[in-house]
Amino acid sequence: MDPINVAERLGRWSAGRGALYALLAARLRCLIDDGELPPGTPLPPDRVLASTLAVGRSTVVAAYDLLQSEGRIVRRQGSGTRVAGHPPTRPVDTTSAPVFLDLLEPRPDVIALACAAPDTPPVELTECYARILPELAATIGDIGYYPTGHPRLRHAIAEYYRSRGVPTAFEQVMVTTGGQQALSLLARGLLQPGDHVLMESPSSPPALEAFRAEAAVVQGLPPGLPGFAAAVREHRPALAYVIPTFQNPTGSVLAPLARRRLAETAAAAGVPLVEDEVLAELGFPGFSTPPPLAAHSAAVITVGSLSKTVWGGLRIGWIRAAAPIIARLARIRAVHDLGGDVPAQLAAAELVPRLAAVCARLAPERQARHDHLRAELARLLPDWHVPAVTGGQTLWVRLPYGDGTSFAQAALRHGVAILPGSGLDPNGGSADHIRVHFLHPPDILTEAARRLTEAWRAYRPPARPAPAPPALAI
């Protein structure tokens, strides 16, 4: 196992109380006992792990000594440090991505700036739930299993795209349990181990994890996929993935002409192009979103979700694609999931026609929070480069020195969880960047900026930038 993968699996190891070596040993102990670090797993050398975690070497040495005395690890001159015991015949199927660890290991004393989603259901959502209660109460003769989604919601999503200039039939829509399931289904349905995927570099961590989970070879291009035609000729990809509106994490927006060219080039080359529209409705006041890529080619596959636009707890996503693809994905899904929550889908069917209005109502507050966090960072950390965006939920910050991976550990010790840029970059770049979201209320953002400032003052970067996280261990 690559050293940085061990570091990523450590998660929020340093956010507790006590000596750092004891906290590090405690977290490694849990990973070993739970099987996350199986017997025989090589652990990083003292200096490498210390550099990656931005701590002194003595901290790592003391933690390793403690675990060795417990019989959990073995240290031998010349052969390094390993988890005690014999390697298993089969690797553990888990994720080490920080964006997921942020959800798996929440702590009330840590301000989470890593995973971005609205944390308060809008009044329109509760109104929609109230509206569907009579229909739900009158339901008979319906077991509620819909692998492709409830018909009412599928019709509503199809109409939503037709209203945006994208001809869409009912059979072209599949409802999923959030956008993450949509990406996982597409990866499973369209990729084989060793297939090449073209995506932006940097890009969305969940998409990167979904493709790597299918053992795909990911090739990165800059945001907007410039040079797409040449990359297709060189790599012969089985799939391409792009976030054209408020690209995650950079916030960039692909111009209308570039959208047309990309969609038409992918169609001519026979490469399935997945357009992630999860953030497309999150423009700030006055911003006009260009037409979707699907408006330029019937071959484009679109992913959408209400979890980023309405509320994180509303686990409603969808895939818009050709009917044969939808039918194939439904057969894959039925093995694992017979369908999503019907009341949530009925409420979503009421909400989708109002989605643009809901997002427009919430846009001024989102922009105000964006402006507030940027102003606080400019005041407290003027050396940081924090470009403004015209929508979305996140800021892509370039650090003046050091690397995002080691600084993320320093920030965590000061009570803030952020995403290091290297984990979002399939090419292993963006080491000098971090991603933070601006969805918290202003007082929390002010406190987050203060903690980040304290972390930056205490930060001592490693001699060399920490390497990028490896592919997902499967």
Automatic annotation (TrEMBL):
In terms of superkingdom, the source organism counts as Bacteria
Report the SMART domains cross-referenced here. HTH_GNTR
List where the protein spans the membrane: none
Q: Which PROSITE patterns match?
A: HTH_GNTR (PS50949)
One short Pfam family name for this protein?
Answer: Aminotran_1_2
A molecular function annotated in GO for this UniProt entry is: transaminase activity
Q: Which InterPro entries match?
A: Aminotransferase_I/II_large (IPR004839), HTH_trans_reg/aminotransferase (IPR051446), Tscrpt_reg_HTH_GntR (IPR000524)
For this UniProt record, the keywords arranged alphabetically read as follows: Aminotransferase, DNA-binding, Transcription, Transcription regulation, Transferase
The HTH gntR-type domain extends over: 18-86
Instruction: State the protein's name.
Output: PLP-dependent aminotransferase family protein
Q: Whose protein is this, by species?
A: Nocardia iowensis
